[in-house]
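name: query_chain
kind: protein
chains: 1
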Amino acid sequence: MNQKIETETKDIELIIGKILRIGVIVAATVIVIGLAMFLIEGTGGYPAGAHPSRRPQFCKASWR
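structure:
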C-alpha cells in the first residue's frame, strides 16, 4: 500500500513538473517575441512625450 502511494505521488510530481516547465517555456517565448518586436520597431509603443514614469501611470497605460 505504501509503495502504491509513493508511486502515485512521484507520478503527480512529474506531471506538475512538466506543466511548470511548459509554462516557463511559454513565458520565455512571449518575452523573446516582445523583445524582437521592440528591436525591429525601435520604439516602445508609446507616442512621443507619453512615456509613463510613475507606477500609476504605467498601470493605466498597460490596461488600455
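note: Residues 52 and 59 are 9 Å apart (CA to CA).
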